[in-house]
Amino acid sequence: MKFYGDSQSGNCYKLQLVASLLNIPYEWIELDIKNGDTRTESFLKLNPNGKIPILELEDGRVLSESNAILNFLAEGSELVPKDPFERAKVLQWQFFEQYSHEPYIAVARFIQHYLSIPKERRLEYESKQVGGHKALQVMEQQLGKTSFLVGDHISIADISLFAYTHVAHEGGFELSKYPNILNWIQRIKELNRFQPMKSV
Length: 200
Description:
The protein is α+β, with helices and mostly antiparallel strands. It has two domains: 2-74, Glutaredoxin (3-Layer(aba) Sandwich), CATH 3.40.30.10; 84-189, Glutathione S-transferase Yfyf (Class Pi), Chain A, domain 2, CATH 1.20.1050.10. It is built from seven helices and four strands, in the order βαβαββααααα. The protein has a four-stranded mixed sheet, with helices on one face.
């Protein structure tokens, strides 16, 4: 199978991390969004939405959206709970990640880490701080009750949220305010076959 993505993207890193944890072999195809790699005719045939990451199977089938790919890759593994309610809780956290977490923390990281907070995006950056801290507070509260987001065993919910949370400081979020999150980050980093995000 092939993964198409940008190694500095949290959404793309999710795939690398789950594949490493589950020892899934794959070919990585690095794309440069700024260079227009996702707007080429060949890429748009794979994903008309023009976004990464995508998964291409050996038979040519293609799957997009990072959390959908995580669910596919982890199906039947210990990263997906067998209990229907707990599986629904995993999905709950993944929807939370896409709607209440990523739009704030990932965007703030992009504005600060990649653009150095240009003047014309200062107000946007500051507004993202509010939503990002709200999301981190929700996670902090849950991780004060359980070791991982859905109980005491890691799931793809944790992988979904780990991707951008562990680099949230690159978006101006001071994680020392969230000791439960810091402990959770460390637990994930200590897992067998953990793969760190590639540095710039």
